[in-house]
Amino acid sequence: MSVMKQTRLMLSVISINLALLGSLTNSYSQVLIPKDSMIYVKKLYRGIDISHYNGDLVKEIDSRDSLSFVICKATQGLSIVDKNFKMNWNVVKSKNLLLGTYHFYMVGEDPVKQAEHYFQTIDAMGKLDIAGVVDIEQGSIPKGYKVNKAQLQADLIKFLDVLQSKIHRVPMIYTCSGFANQYLNNNAFSKYPLWLAEYTNAVKPKLPATWSKTGYKIWQKSEKYQIDSKPTDFDVYYGSLVDLCK
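Request: output the structure for the sequence above.
Response:
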């Protein structure tokens, strides 16, 4: 069997295993999988994140890209659904890549309704491999909006609580160090895994203060990854696939 075929087979098996795990239980320890299985191997995994801004780029992914996961924009605010969300979801699944989704959070809008909107949208599509993500950044603050930091933090925690109660998994937070240090400097957020945006050639990114002890889970380290000459964000994760999909 060629290396390419072996890689595709491995990804297919991983995808099937993770889908089965997700449908049966949220605790990997309750499922009998050999400890030497590839899903337990700690290594560097590569991924991308996409939205409708990337067009149909997801269709161009092939084995030469050496990708293991794709995180798609699902929703924004109270009612927006990314127009390419369903297509991206289905294509990622068809390529046997691990699938994640994110909600672009809007400050000042009802956090409970935002969480419900996100959950209902992804739940209608099926099972995720990677836990749900809330994307909060400077663009989350409407132009001219006067931010009350305490209220922002309380609302975001409410969003995360509601989402966690629905997906029965700990959600992830996507943000950058600048925004986190300004608005998320609250230890209550440190229990949520961090997907950190920091574009640098450094060996390690600079962590926001809130996650200085817990570290990051995924690092978005570039916005210039090329797939068929089309740029997109590039993400890396070091660890096991079991931990990526907790």
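The first helix runs from residue 3 to 24.
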